[in-house]
Amino acid sequence: MVLVLFNRLTENDKATAIKKLISDSTPDQDFFLMVILSVLMATFGLLINSVAVIIGSMLIAPILYPILGLSLGVVIADYKLISRSFYTVLKSLAFGIAGAAAVTLLFNSNYENTAEILARTEPSMIYFAIAVIAGLAASFALVMPEISSSLPGVAISVALIPPIAVTGIGVARFNWHIISNSFLLFAINAAGIVFASMVIFSLMNLYVKRQVVASAVKKEDEITRKEIEKAKAKKLAEENKE
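Predicted structure:
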């Protein structure tokens, strides 16, 4: 059955999925803005113990894509994609944790650990199993056009953003137990996704698409470079007017 499903994929489907993955994981200003907004939203949800707000934060979070990009980079042995994706994840963590800590310091002075916060400080192998299943679903949905709409649901199931927010809350409260356990939960979730998506990408023979990956990365990086140069030129022009 698995082979039948993979045989349905065309080379165009694979190339399109790779281009989308590279585009959605590009570390530009829009990407990091969405990461920060999602973590801030999750932090408020955790502080007021609101499941609905936490779920909403996961729907707008793009951090799943660079993690899948990391998996693809390993499968095709593309060190540029690996470093690019790893850098994006690390920078997302830095921005997210800093943002969550700032929100906690500004809006929550009673140092109460809600049930939703405490729930993210109990990592276990069950979370790894959930992440593996989510990784299988995410990587498969990415390449299959007819079920790509399932990706937001996958993002909710694996819950990458709340542990980052809880880590920031722990930093604000100088609580090593919260920091270490919530960050470990994020690491477990990320590792599960990477492992599962590597399996799926290998079965899909995506390692033969190195040229597509290289071309897509070059294109997106060039767009990002031009946007940065345009922003700098605009800022310089405004400063000269003053």
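Summary: The chain has one domain: 2-241.
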